[in-house]
Amino acid sequence: MPNAILDPTGATKTAAKPAAARAPRPASLKGARVGLLINTKQNAAPFLHEVGRLLVENYGVASVTHRTKLNFAVPESDEVIKELAADADVVVTGVGDCGSCSAAAAADGVVCEAAGLPTAVIVTESFRATTEAMAELRGAPGFPYATTAHPVAVLSEDQVKERAAGVMDAVVALLTREIAEGTEKKA
Amino acid sequence: MTEPVTGAVADAIVEAAPDPDEARRAIEYCYQHGWSDGLPLVPASKPLVDEFLATTSREPDEIIGSLEQVGRDCTVYLAAVNAAMAGCKPEYFPVVLAAFDALMRERAARGGGFQSTSGPAPLIVVNGPVRHELEFNTAGGAFGDGFRPNATIPRAIGLIVRNAFGIRQHVLGQATQGVPGRWSICIAENEEESPWEPLAANAGQPGGVSAVSATLTRTCEFIDNRATAVTEEVLRDFADTIGRLGPQIFPQTPVALVLCPEHAQQFAGAGWSKADVQNWLIEHSGRTAGEMRRAGKGHVLRFGASADAEPVDDEHFHRVLSQPRQIPVIVAGAKNAGISMVARIFGEWSGIATPVGEKP
User: Fold this and answer.
1) Helix/strand/coil for B322
2) ipTM associated with this complex
């Protein structure tokens, strides 16, 4: 009997993750408190603030608060997520425009959903694969998210506003309706 | 023309030569499972991996590194399987463990560096007697090929990241271009021709012990300067590369200085210590605010400044380094030309070396 070739991944020992819970969606955002989780990447703050402004102006959102990620490259600490959850009914996070921060945005989205917060994760189109891979690792295969074109960091103030306006339909749909698994809302 | 070999001699050769078709099947098996970095792997068997595990007192299931964001751990056992597949000899394994430990001390390595668009490479530096015991290349071609421990130990780290942590290109690995030779940089310091203390002594491991230091690097840039005996002139050439605009994305831009013996001895001969070289380069490496603004890097000047702070003048000289730990100095290569390298550190170096063969 020849020797087996050993598996270098250790994957056989990894137990399958239980499916992550998804928050129930409100019928509309009227009166909702929105929490922005800003990942500190260039133009992320003005992008998300414009999304917040449009949610107030056009969708009857009652308030917008924000928290800033301590480290864009990794999933956010429980403390920050708790702070966010204390003042918010729904969450918008992004803008994932790099390898680690787009994956981290997906991880944050899964955590927020499990905490009962409908969440819209926004990443640039270049980072779909890693966003989806991270969501799957976190027990949320097919996690829906919104995309905007890449890049975001070089945009002017007006261009950022235009882009933010462009994701609004997707963001509102992500926050208010049950979405079939695997349905990606494209901006 | 030589006579064909027959009889007992031929039998002995046949017995000694393994079956290449069987080897090919084993190699292809590893490719099919997606374990390879692109080059052929040594298929790892239990007897082979047991030889690796026998070189350390650490338990096979001890966790030696975790990437929390992807929920994956690396154990001593998994490191051994990947080191075997990388082509390491079993006796290299304590160095692999030390290198991995040193690398995982790095905040950038734990915090998404392997997933980064930067595609950074580990820069591994080996010091002490282990360099000769394991026949590392300590001389010419320090960044190059041709030497098994220098080539296979960083490859083992790359395979651990790929297989144990599950970071693969186009999925969780998002390198835009990545560093050329990403998993191939392992320098054994040329301590014999260095006029100064080895890097390990600057990193908490004095006394000539075998130790490994590691950080992540975004590229290596050469400085060819062999026509002046004036230390400050050579250093100004270094400062130009260290301070250049391309790598500036944060206010501080650490580098590792990999000096050739000729430059190191020239500086030391003129009475300069490592610290003198570091301090001179801290003082002189950077660009003016005007140069940064004209290259679209003006925003770097605003990091860390209060929102109502006055913008600095175009003449303001922005230094990219502020302390010696941001510019570790290593001596490597042959004493045959004034060619040194600046390795651009990704994030910050921890400044801590790991002794070989001991639990950290």
Assistant:
1) coil
2) 0.90
